[in-house]
Amino acid sequence: MFTESRRAAWIVLAIALAGLFAPLLANDRPILARVDGRLTAPALADLPLVGTLFDDPASRLVTWDAPTAWPSGASGRVLLMPPVPYSYRGIRLEDSLRPPSATHPMGTDALGRDLLARVLHGARLSIMVGFGATALALFIGFCIGALAGLRGGLVDLVIVRLLDVVACFPPFILALAFMAALGRTGVGPMVAGIALSRWTSMARYVRGEILRHRGGEIWVSARATGAGGIHLVLRHLLPLLAAPLAVMVSFGVANAIVLESALSFLGFGVNPPAPSWGSILAEARTSLDAAWWPVFFPSAALVTVLASLCSAAERAAGGESRGAPLS
Amino acid sequence: MIAFLARRALSTVPTLVGITILTFAILNLLPTDPIQVWSGGGSYSAEAAEHLRSELRLEQGVAARYASWGFALLRGDLGRSLRDGRTVASVIAGALPWSLLLNLCSVLLIYGVSVPFGLFGASSPGSVADRLGHLILLLLYAVPSFAAALILQQWFAVRLGWLPLHGVSAQGASSVERAWDLARHLALPTACLALSGWAIVARYSRAAFRSLLNREFLAVARAKGLSRLRAYGHVTANAAVPFVTLLATILPGLVGGSVIVEQVFSLPGVGRLYLTSVEARDYPVVLGLTLLSAVLVLAGQLLVDVLYLIVDPRIREGLLGDRGDVH
After folding, report:
1. Distance in angstroms (rounded) separating the CA atoms of residues B158 and B140
2. B170 Cβ under 8 Å from any chain A Cβ
3. Structural domain of residue B195, as residue ranges?
4. Is the CB of A301 inside 8 Å of chain B's CB atoms?
């Protein structure tokens, strides 16, 4: 039973890593090259966060896909190309809508961009937003739930009312309203909007568990040794809640990924040409009559990740669904 | 029973007030310049900005604006659309029937398909068909509605040409033909909206039926010569309560989900209206619809409570028993 759950977790991890290292897996710039006699790593410069460390002005002058036509200013030799030698934004209109083949395993989109490269890069955004928004929601939910459970009284009453109110808003609507009020779309508002609509179930659960353990054996013995409320929750209660919370988190990540791709699909997510599985699908709408691959592969990626997350969560929860259904 | 319903309805009043406060807060309290946001990046002339300022009553404080909006709300006045000057109420009233029709059809489809499916799975647990069904449902559950929409459009509208691609119409000589035309237009969106619900209800009904099929009363009834079909009837009646509970889980998802489905299939419902209003920065309509979507979820919870009373005599008697006229 747990092996299957573990396999699903491995799939998600593999896709997350693929997304994180997408610039090394799919790029039209080499991983390793020699420019003007020096070794450089142009593809590494596209990595998130650490990319600036590898930025090399000289290698930016080189047109890597046409080795014979290098400008006289810089000359270079490709030592190692990424396995998918295409960038997510490399438009080649002459290669528009090529069916899957050896050179383009997932085919190309209407602008001739390699779909495998786009799906790989899209994984980065989907996974990043999924985990980021869920981590934020977990943090908010845990703090507020713990506050309600520990303080009780009026604080608890107000927080429970607030939870009732927020839970009435469909997550999708809440995220959209948040972005409308902000007047901005993009990754930041999207993560905030998704977290804003997702923290209530976590808060409710943490509050319920604190109330359940309150006065119990663990609680009393910890109190007797002089533990304060926060210490008690973090040190003694959190480990008890870890497994159920992990289940909620995997459902939460699945939900957040659906929300992210739906928002990107509707044009409220990432800004083009940055790909997200949702925005790749939105672009595929223009070629519905001509090609099946731009619809099939991003959908397949989404379904794989979501089904893995859900089945991992379900099995860990003993076959009983705890999380809210996907919206 | 009337008294109970009245009490239950009254208890939603604080939540309702909370919903209006939160709706207003999301759209008014973020640290952005409202004129900047609602005019589309400040592209308005000074005169138009002044008009918008008076239209949004920005010269008053937030509390005063909330109060005047709230009092107008009590009179049923949601303000006027910034786009065409029609009242928000009439704009929403024009779109609401479509969404209600779509959601009603998909709830019927969800229960119509997944209850028999769950019953079948429960009556032969562990069989190949049961396990295959479980896998298919997990996959269906994991297909986001917009991906499903594209795949269905591509196959049933573009490739096979059986159904219209998008839009609604009810044309034809006779009323039968008009109904048929409408049904053809609603078929794909309804199926899309029903997808995730199918999986949830089927899995749940399978579990509910399975625990019921092992009960003694059923063995006794069968031993006394009750036909299999009649026995299933008894089982279904007993499973009614979990199904009503499920309705409470599905309803909020449908409200959010219909935004995407209505957009993809160009249905003129409230979901599509919401998106176009966010895009057109039509503040009063966004405010009204955000409120409406939360109120609909609350109303759904109320409906579920009422349904409990109807389907389960035990709950009904328990409630009335409090007042001492049954026991």
Report:
1. 21
2. no
3. 95-283
4. no
pLDDT class for A311, splitting at 50, 70, 90? confident
**Which of B26, B139, B259 lies nearest to residue A181, judging by beta carbons?**
B26
Residue pair B141/B201 in contact by the 8 Å Cβ criterion: no
- Global pTM reads 0.82
CB contacts under 8 A, B 220-249 vs A, are 249
Contacts of A298 in chain B (CB under 8 A): 147
Residues A17 and A126: their CA atoms lie apart, in Å, by 12
Look up residue B319 and give its amino acid.
L
Nearest to B257 among A179, A311, A327 (CB): A327
N-to-C CA span, chain A? 27
Phi/psi for A84 (5° steps) reads: -110, 105
Task: Tell me the pLDDT tens digit for each residue of A35-77.
Answer: 777 777 777 777 777 777 777 776 666 666 655 555 555 566 7
Closest CA–CA distance from residue B284 to any residue of chain A (Å): 12
For residue B168, is it within any domain? yes
Q: What does the pLDDT look like over B168-177, one tens digit per residue?
A: 777 777 788 7
Q: Is B140 an 8 Å CB contact of chain A?
A: no
Topology annotation, domain A117-322: MetI-like fold (1.10.3720)
Q: How confident is the model at residue B6 (pLDDT cuts 50, 70, 90)?
A: confident
Q: CA angle, B58 as apex, B57 and B62 as ends, to 5°?
A: 95
* CB proximity B23 to A under 8 Å: yes
Work out the number of other CB atoms within 10 angstroms of the CB of residue A287. 17
State the total domains in chain B.
Answer: 1
ipTM above 0.85, yes or no: no
